[in-house]
Design goal:
By secondary structure, this protein is mainly alpha-helical. It is built from 7 helices and no strands.
Length: 190
């Protein structure tokens, strides 16, 4: 089911937020985080949500507006929320690039920028899980879900083909592997 896919994607996103949060903890302690991991997480967030996750949510919200405009209005402007998330991600990327370029940035400023991104992403997903997904499940009919699936099949070919989805899975696994290696390396130096 479509909502199951969105929820799984949220779980995957949360996993990557935890990876970023752990690297932020390393940075906050005055140590050097694994910037390869951080860059991989940022790259994932730059591409995956807007390419795959948000378009699916947009189609569901479009159907919800037709079936229950009051519930859809309570959800608010998801597209604007997604744009704000992209802007926060750009700030994270710039902060990391600034650190790597030895720009004079307060450690606390970098920490605050990354922490804000993590917290806002979690709040956004919680809002979707608590309000948006239940409203869609309640209001949409089987024919709506069938139309969503059919429409997505058209959208995913060829740009969102299984090959592209597989590529994102490879990136996600690579990020998690990098994080495990960084953890092992940190333990070896303790």
């Amino acid at each position: 089911m479509v909502i199951d896919i969105l929820r799984q994607e949220h779980r995957n996103i949360e996993m990557l937020l935890r990876v970023l949060e752990r690297e932020l903890g390393v940075f906050a302690r005055g140590e050097r985080p694994d910037y390869e991991v951080v860059h991989a997480v940022i790259a994932y967030f730059k591409v995956y949500p807007d390419a795959c996750h948000h378009p699916l949510e947009d189609v569901v919200l479009e159907k919800l507006k037709v079936r229950d405009s009051v519930a859809a209005a309570r959800i608010g402007d998801l597209a604007a929320d997604h744009r704000r998330g992209a802007n926060r991600l750009r700030r994270v990327a710039l902060a990391i690039e600034g650190v790597l370029a030895d720009q004079e940035l307060l450690r606390q400023t970098v920490n605050d920028i990354i922490r804000d991104f993590i917290e806002q992403e979690r709040c956004h997903m919680a809002k979707e899980e608590h309000d948006f997904f239940p409203a869609a499940l309640k209001a949409l009919r089987p024919q709506d879900w069938a139309e969503i699936v059919a429409r997505l099949s058209d959208q995913r070919d060829p740009v969102f083909s299984e090959v592209v989805e597989e590529k994102f899975e490879v990136v996600r696994r690579h990020i998690l592997q990098l994080e495990q290696e960084a953890d092992a390396d940190r333990l070896a130096h303790c």
